[in-house]
Amino acid sequence: MSFQKPNPDDRSDNVEKLQDMVQNTIENIDKAEETLVNASSDEKEMLQQKNRRREAAIQSFKEEIQDEASDRENGYQ
Asked: I need a labelling partner for 19 at 20 to 30 A (CA). Which of 30, 36, 56, 70 fits?
């Protein structure tokens, strides 16, 4: 039987990863907005709901970025 060591907790690039996630989510919102022009009413409602969830996710990402940046400033690596 072999035992695997867990990977060490590396949070050194979490802020950058979260910033990328925010940017990607904004791009997805923009693409969905462009799609709304040719969408049926049901599709429009679905895309609008999805964009609202994306906007909530962006807010959560931004809060997480602040937490991670604060942790980084306080010496967590």
From this structure: 36
